[in-house]
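user: can you give me the structure for this one chain? C-alpha cells are fine.
assistant: on it. calling the predictor now.
[tool input]
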Amino acid sequence: MEIIVLMTSWAIAYFAGPRLLPVLRKLKFGQTVRDDGPQSHLQKNGTPTMGGFIFIISIIITSLIVISLRREFTTEIVISLLFMILFGFVGFVDDYIKVVKKRSLGLKARQKISMQVVFAAILAVFQLKISPLGTSILVPFTNLTLDLGIMYVPFLMFVIIAIVNSVNLTDGLDGLASTVTVVVSLCFAVIAAMTGNKAVIYFMCSVAGACIGFLRVNRYPAKVFMGDTGSMALGGAVAAAAVILNLELLVPLICIVYFMESLSVILQVGYYKKTKKRIFKMAPLHHHFELCGWHETKVVKGFIVITVIMGLIGILSVYIGGI
C-alpha cells in the first residue's frame, strides 16, 4: 500500500508538472531574482514560480484516495493536510504580493509571522487534544517521555514555525528543498512504520512521491520554482509528521539541512549586527558554498548526503529507544 501511495503521488506530480507550466507562464507568474544574491542566479529571472501547486495538488488527491480506502486514518491525514494547506496559504499570499503586486519582498515579516503564529496555535491545540501522550513528547535514543506541561502548546508552536521557515530558507537552489524533503519524508515514514502510525506513513509517502515527481520540472536547470507557496506547504507537511509522532526533539537530526540553513542566517545576522563582519560569504548556507566555487548541483548533492546520514541516525535513535 505504501509503495502504491508513493507511486500514485509521483505519477500525478510527474505528469501534471509540464501541463501546469504553460498556465504559470500565461499568468506571468515569473520569479524576480534579488540582485543581492549570487550573480549566477540572475539568469533565472522570469522562471515561473508558485510551482508548489503541482505537488500540493498531488498530495491532496493522493491523501483523499487513501482516506476513501482507509477511513480509520481520516483524522490524522486531515490534520496533516491542514498543516500543509494553511502554511501553503501563507506562502501563496507572499508569492502573490511578490509576483502580481510586484513587491519583491512580499509579505512584511510581521504579517507573515502573525499568520504563522495563529495557524501554529490552532494546530498545536488540536494536537494537544488528540495526542495519546498528552503534554509529553518522546526523547530520542531513550524510551522516555518529557512532560512539557503548560509549555507544550508554546513549544509545538515554536517547532512548527521553525520548520516552516527553515524549509522556506532551504528553497534557494534548483531541486534543493524538493530532494531534501524527499529524504526527510521517507525517514519519517520509516519511523512511523516502526511506531505503528500508518496514517503518517501514507501521508509522508505521498509527500515524498509528489516531490520526486516535481523534480521533473524543478531539478537543475529548473523550469519552475516551488515558490513560498510550495516551500511553506512542505514545511507544514514535515511539521505535521514531527508533531503527530511526538518526535519534535528529533527534528534537528532528521531535518539537519533545514536546521543548518536557519542557523546560518541567525548567526550571520547576529554576528553582523555586533561586529559589522560576516561569518559566511552569504547566508543561507547554500549560498556560502556557491560563493566558495561549488556548482549548485554539487551543493544539492552534498546536502542530500548529509540528510541521508543524519536521517539514518534519527531512525537508529528510535530503534535504540524501542519507541
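assistant: here you go. The longest helix spans residues 74-99. The two ends are 23 Å apart (CA to CA).
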